[in-house]
Amino acid sequence: MADPEPENVGLKMNSRQQKILQLVQQQGFVSIDTLSQTFDVTPQTIRRDINDLCDQQLLKRHHGGAGLSSSVENEEYAARQVMFQEEKRSIAKLVASHIPDRASIFINIGTTTEEVAKALQGHTDLRVITNNLHVASILSANPSFEVIVAGGLVRQRDGGITGEATIDFISQFRVDFGIIGISGIDEDGTLLDFDYREVRVAQAIIEHSRRVFLVADHSKFDRRALVRLGHLTGIDDLFSDKVPADHIRTALAEAKVSLHIASAN
């Protein structure tokens, strides 16, 4: 068997651990034996990988394997920041290439949308309304931008702003582009998330945007989450890093959503 890859510390994952997480998210449960054969490493190496991922609250241990941590609670923000980081950056770069200067934009909560904010820093004269304090901080570094922060309740864990005041504020605007993230896309095209308060803000963004960009790395395909945000029919463009499975592509085609795949580089 191949030598195990060096283990990473804290919330960082090696490439094998990212692939294990992806497999579990797609299948719901994967056995240690299957993972050992798939990656050509010993069961002991897979157990260490699973232990690391469970310590980060990304997976849950089960007898003989690992399953999803929860369908009712998302991973911790710090963990999501390092998950599929390069993929998110490539998605963000592609999204930024579709945003012209002097555009008006909504950007909501999420680690992928925060990468989009970073990728937009080279633009000029953008007008951005956001309910994400991290996005506001990132974009405020550009003196040509006008950044407007929605009012509401600030979530300490990730700097997201939600609540009735947030929805009322968002509803005052009509912008060129709404850029939203998502926790999961079900096989029938249903958009899923974990926090109903966050979902209601995202729904308002969709309603008040002329064009809606959904940003989602490949791990979001077929991922379970508790709250229904809407359907792909409410989206104009999906930006991801990998081509999804046939059933997701069928749902995209039926919803007339344009699919954009970011280059690995």
N/C terminus separation: 30 Å
By CATH reckoning, the class of the largest domain would read Alpha Beta
Share of helical residues:
25-40%
Mean pLDDT: 88
SS-derived structural category: alpha/beta
Strand order of the largest sheet: 6-5-4-9-12-14-15
List SSEs in N-to-C order. HEHHEEHHEHEHEEEHEEEHEEEHE
Domains (count): 2
Could you tell me the CATH topology label of the largest domain. Rossmann fold
DSSP strand tally: 15
Number of helices: 10
Largest sheet: 7 strands, parallel
* CATH architectural designation of the largest domain: 3-Layer(aba) Sandwich
Alpha-carbon Rg, integer: 19 Å
Shape descriptor? globular
- The proportion of strand residues reads 15-25%
Low-pLDDT residue intervals, each spanning 5 or more residues: 1-10
Provide structural commentary:
With 265 residues, this protein is an alpha/beta fold. It has two domains: 15-69, Arc Repressor Mutant, subunit A (Orthogonal Bundle); 83-261, 3-Layer(aba) Sandwich (Rossmann fold), CATH 3.40.50.1360. The chain is built from ten helices and 15 strands. The chain has helices spanning 15-27, 32-39, 43-55, 77-82, 85-97, 111-119, 133-139, 164-170, 196-207, 246-255; strands spanning 29-31, 59-62, 65-68, 104-107, 127-130, 146-149, 153-154, 161-162, 175-181, 184-185, 190-193, 209-215, 227-231, 237-240, 258-261. A seven-stranded parallel β-sheet has the order 6-5-4-9-12-14-15, with helices on both faces. A three-stranded antiparallel β-sheet has the order 1-3-2. Strand 2 and strand 3 (65-68) form a beta hairpin. Helix 5 packs across helix 6 (111-119), helix 6 (111-119) packs parallel to helix 7 and helix 8 (164-170) runs parallel beside helix 9. It is globular. Residues 1-10 have low confidence and may be disordered.
